[in-house]
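Appendix B. Raw example, untouched.
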Amino acid sequence: MVVVVADQIPDAVRGKMKLWFIELNPNVFVSGINDHVAKKVVNYLFSKSPFLSAMTLVISTSEAPGYKIFSLGNPKKKVVEISGLQLITNRLL
């Protein structure tokens, strides 16, 4: 499974994403694609989206803890790693 949360996505990228994802809310996408395709999608999104997109992606993996978090730009929620575990925290003011 892949979940994408973005602040802004270019229209061309958003249109392409609708091939693989359903859009639950504006700029919140979910898909059940497999791990191999998910990595290709992550690479595509990072290469075609500007830094200002402020994107967070969560993909499920077969390795512990069962997910991997990627981020682009400066998203509202920060990814931190504690003892090898990726967590999402609120940005401190």
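End of appendix B.
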